[in-house]
Amino acid sequence: MIRITHLTGSRKGKVDSSGKPTVRLGRAKDCDVRFDAQGDPKVSNHHAEFLYEDGSWFVVDTASTNGTLIEGKRIVKHRLRQGEEVQIGSGGPLVKVEFDAKDGAGGSMKTEAVRLDSLQPPPPPAFDATTELRRVSAELEQSADTATARLAEVAAKKVAEERAKAGGKSSGRTLMIMAGTMKEVQDSARKKTARRWVKVVAAVGGVATVVVLAMGVVIGRQRRQIRELVEQKQRIDQEIEAVQHQMNEEEDGERLGALEDKLTTLTGNAKHTLAELKQSDQDTASELAQAGDDLDRQIRDILRKFDAETYAVPPIFKDRLKFHIDELAKAPNLKFVYSRKQRYWPMITREFNALGLPEEMAYLAWAETQFDPKAKSSAGAAGMWQMTATTAQGYGLTVDGKVDERFDPAKETKAAARHIANLLAEYGSDSFMLAIASYNRGEAGVRRVLHQVAQEPGGFRKEKRDFWHLYRTKKLPEETREYVPKVLAAAIVSREAKKYGLE
Questions:
Q1: Under a CB-based contact definition with an 8 Å cutoff, are residues 90 and 5 in contact?
Q2: Sign of dihedral through CA atoms 413, 414, 420, 424?
Q3: For the stretch 119-131, what's the b/e string if a residue is b when 16 or more beta carbons lie within 10 angstroms of its beta carbon?
Q4: Whether residue 313 has pLDDT greater than 50
Q5: CA neighbours within 13 Å on the CB side: how many for 398?
Q6: Kind plus residue range of the DSSP H or E element containing 241
């Protein structure tokens, strides 16, 4: 049983009590402790939860806007002490939390405290436990559940040994052996095998029925915790998407900064929830982490190559990437460009492999000129890679009134590979999209943006130098923000050449 005494706010003086293992706080209708929207503006719709877990009470911030605080410090998850005070949002209402240490979670959790000796055991089984366990072991082997089968066989041997010690009679230790084995099964095989072991224990009969009841409570509690974590992550993901849409519409730098801070808190909470879920159910956690459509998976795959994974790709970035993919797919010269790309690709990959560069970076040439070695821009850039005269000369190419080696595909590709390698070295492979942006904007342009960010609090930190941060806060020019998805679109279309009728 948990008691929540309201010290300040619209509910000041009131006491809420609950026997539930999870108590939700917020302004939404489905919260167990509901605050007034006008009286408590610092409280979010789904602000926090008091959670009973492993014999202790915790407070968990569920992606609130203004945070959940203990002694003035924001927390994500905190083990509560008896009588501890929790502030629901910075400047929000203060509550004192007390709980019944004797009864633990109380309410629905009391079923776990049932004493074995208070239950009347059914009549003894009409068959031998060792024989039954070995039969189950054989069935499990046939179903390819070898890990559980081995545990069943070990349990059978232990039962037989104890019976031998007791002179061929029941040793009275069958229940203990079965309970211990079920614990091993639960640890090693989680839900699937745990369900089978409930059936196994039921087959042994006798006082082991009590263990089935206890196991049912444990499994039920695990499932409830998993369900609550999944729901919590889904709520946070919805808030993350809403914040990112707000950022796309916002132009004011100060408000963008505040939204970025909120997004950082939300993604931290989402990662924490996913980590907790992984401890309880790896399969469900993995399924949630890999959720999304085919384009989401393509993006994750490319980012993973560069160790540049991010929790939440901005929806507008994905929209623009899809736009450029669709534009390429319906382009009348797509097959011609792809054929030209194939002609130069062996030479390009040879130069890129020599420096260990990922092939995705080579699609800069598609975005720049569609692999046209004779291309020339009005700004004076030339060749397949559109290098300026100054940049080309810096990498040893001859560019004068008589000779322009930028129009030599092999020589310019070699110079371009070195240039790209230098950009990746400057920004780091995990900021490869910043290197792509720099290819379009120029090193001086991107460096100027980073120097501006450095004047902000914490602007020197890695997360502030990240492409996604600069993209969301609109510190990069529109042309550059559009250039990066354009390059990745060419890489994705080439990856799926068969799908687009190119092979």
A1: no
A2: positive
A3: eeeeeeeeeebbe
A4: yes
A5: 7
A6: helix 208-249
Q: What angle do CA 29, 33, 35 make, to 5 degrees?
A: 70
Q: Which residues pair with 404 in a beta bridge?
A: 399
Contacts of 41 (CB under 8 A, 6+ apart): none
User: What CA–CA distance (Å, rounded) separates 414 from 139?
Assistant: 63
Between β-strands 15-18 and 73-75, what pairing exists: parallel, antiparallel or unpaired? unpaired
* More reliable by pLDDT, 457 or 165: 457
User: What is the C-alpha to C-alpha distance for residues 137 and 135, in angstroms, rounded to an integer?
Assistant: 5
Give pLDDT tens digits for 65-87: 888 999 888 888 899 999 999 99
pLDDT-derived band at 204 (thresholds 50, 70, 90) equals: very low
3-state secondary structure of 378: coil
Q: How many CB atoms lie within 10 A of CB 485?
A: 25
Which amino acid is located at 458 in the chain?
Answer: G
CA angle 430, 435, 440 (to 5 degrees): 155
Residue 338 has a CB neighbour count (10 Å cut-off) of 23
In whole angstroms, how large is the CA radius of gyration of the chain?
31
pTM of the model: 0.59
**Phi, psi at 174, each rounded to 5°:** -55, -45
Strand partners, 75: 68
How many residues in total does the chain contain? 503
| Token representation of residue 422 | 């230098």
Q: Give Cβ neighbours of residue 266 (< 8 Å, ≥ 6 apart).
A: 63, 236, 239, 240, 243
One-letter-per-residue 3-state SS of 160-184 = HHHHHHCCCCCCCCHHHHHHHHHHH
> Does 192 score more than 70 pLDDT?
no
Q: What SS3 class is residue 155? A: helix
Is residue 35 within 8 Å of 14, Cβ to Cβ? Answer: no
Written as one letter, the residue type at 373 is: P
